[in-house]
Amino acid sequence: MSAGQTPTARPRIAVGPGPADWAAEAIRRGGGEVVSLNGDPAGLVWTDARADGLREVLAACRGIAWVQLPQAGVETVVATGIIDRQRRWTSAKGAYAEPVAEHALALLLAGLRRLPERARARSWGEEAGTSLFGQPVTIIGGGGIAAVLLRLLEPFRAQVTVVRQRPEPLPGAARTVGDDRLHEALAGARAVLLVLALTPRTRKLIGRAELAAMGHDAWLVNVARGGVVDTEALVEALRSSQIGGAALDVTDPEPLPTGHPLWDLPNCLITPHTAYTEEMTRPLLARRIMENIQRLRAGQELVGQVDPDLGY
Asked: Is 273 a catalytic residue?
């Protein structure tokens, strides 16, 4: 048991902003009691990715000591200034790692095999494509998605470098380096996968200099947040074939407007932020809620805790 945390016999947990039977069931399965917002809750499961109304709920229910957020990336909630140190805050970070990593791998394979080009083709064309087997891959970000990606890449015998803020080794990575060695890790990589949180520190982390550090045949895959990449710089790099291509599940701006230059680039593949869907994530979020209720009861550390200083 961590210092400052005590077991709770049967925590009283509310669901907001409105009723959600699946969330209530997860609370019960974890051993909690589902109460209304007027029922003096000690915790709150918030099911809306938007923070609209959350501040008012917390102001009215001052006994809430723990808030479970539904999204993995909480930059929009952090930006509102709601997240404080008076409560424990948890997100879904790590809970959706498997579907997101799966989508990242699909995008990478599609890029290397030139599927965007072939999907648009109206003639037989020429022989082309690259195998992922044995290729150098760089993953930027060291959380749950990176861990799953490392497992998925094992059969391909890829030589994987992980770039993370704290360069502790990760199982399956050939090497792990700090973000101060980002350019070194970009050079020579056939694929660069972005799986890091968006914070003021990481906004436009991939800009002109970083794209220039990549090889002309390298593919950039972004399943993190669009703001991690300088979109204008990426358009220039794709137009000039400075890099091989980009596969994006997230963009900046998002949704990507009709007529944006990225739509027309043959070496760019875009999916509309569908690395995970509600159908995929609801059971995963329910599992996270249930586990955190169990941990709350036992006085243990909660999973997916948000650090107000780091912003994720």
From this structure: yes
